[in-house]
């Protein structure tokens, strides 16, 4: 269908990639991956004609139709409405519709047989192109991507860049290309829209090539992985998780082969040097020299992954309760977001705040940060040192400063080596740390602002979409750091992998309330609490619900039941062990009698174990509720 032959691309005398040979077949789902700067977006622009191809050939089959979604494609006419922008996908049908309108005017003056035949022919072609349904189809796609019915007739210029991108994504989906090249399609989507897109793509008949930092999206959407690494191109079977496993095995094998070959070469060179000047061995020496010259070297993989780590320390621990929010009300004009909302944040909480766009996630985060006006009571706890990251934090950057010096001002207690290591995790390597803030792109500025937030040694972090401008490797590093972070955390994210790895509580917005589930994201999605909520990532339309249902494994309920039973067994085992431990501590307390130091220590231990038992009982109750709900399903 599409064949790339010996594609190479160099810029400033350096090659991004060399000699790519890639054949994209019909109905393939491919993830295109590689570290930041490896050339993923450049390759897509070469394929789609955005960049001039100077080395290699691209062979397209027949009248192959290509669709391309790029992060900088927001140049559509801003005066057009959202609906008109997306409907540009029906180019031929719109031209025919215009011709039909002209013919109808003409027929009023001249109802000749010739004009009537022309009208009939055009109407037939318009029908073949499904022109009578194009407006309904467009509205359905736009609503799936998060636009409200009342919004689609508004001019594109009234929307942010992220919403304009959604309109352009709708246009590409409606155009039904043979191959879709999608560069970060989930960047501006909320969780319900991402699920809708997954459902749509799962039944799409064309091929799809995706560049994304959303690991969960890649795992769900792709069955092949194309990797750009160290100027080379590799193609792997399987999704991103399969690729990671296969890559480790491949790299390990090549490393062993390269080591064995080095030893072999070393042995041969030793023989050559030893007998080079002995006439009796001249033939053998020449033979081995020629053999080494012809030997095809096994090149060990030079990993381009940064083996860096991030360590976020806190200057001091907070009190047990960081924040109490009571009777929170928030309105924007006639729009009421929250009504008499109550929530509490405790030490050690890592809370994911989720919901559809427009439900007030970022607003509620700003209320917690005390940067948004509201009605109600916000009580901050003891020793709370908060650090807040959001897009508007970019305004606080000092444009005349260099990236490194900006962080040095924010964290004077850290060494330059520590700050450079941190910046490396946020994709600023080498001399990039000396760039002036004013010359950075929006995404680069966002990464600097995020690094500043995290380096503050605060014990309470508030993060609004922290993964938006990071690659997969950087997201993984951030997850590891936040898992080890000893402070508390509330974050908004549409990255499901990030949420699932970090959150120990889920807050979701529903019916003007922020509701709480005390568990992980995976547990929440399988709980009765997540069902039939507009703000939760579930398919909205009947069509989407059917697609989602068909997508589920037939034995999913059975598997969920078994999973819950296993968790209950584990909780039961932990309960038994705890009760034994508590009984021993109680016995020890009775025996300690007048040993006040021992009595105090045993009392603290007993209190701790009793609290752990209480938490286990709550968890057992929640698991039982889920199991009962599952068993009662029709």
Short description:
By secondary structure, the protein is an alpha/beta fold.
Describe the structure in your own words:
The protein is α/β, with parallel strands linked by helices and 634 residues long. Among the domains are: 321-536, 3-Layer(aba) Sandwich (Rossmann fold), CATH 3.40.50; 556-631, Helix Hairpins. Helices cover 46% and strands 19% of the residues. The protein contains 20 helices and 18 strands. It has helices at residues 40-47, 82-87, 91-109, 113-128, 134-144, 161-175, 191-202, 215-221, 240-275, 282-294, 361-369, 403-410, 416-425, 442-454, 472-484, 496-502, 521-525, 542-551, 556-592, 596-631; strands at residues 2-11, 14-24, 29-33, 55-60, 66-69, 179-183, 207-211, 224-229, 232-237, 321-332, 335-346, 350-354, 375-380, 386-389, 460-464, 488-492, 505-510, 513-517. A hairpin with a 2-residue loop joins strand 8 and strand 9 (232-237). Helix 5 crosses helix 6 (161-175), helix 9 (240-275) packs antiparallel against helix 10 (282-294) and helix 19 runs antiparallel to helix 20. The two termini are 46 Å apart. Mean pLDDT is 85; it is low at 532-554.
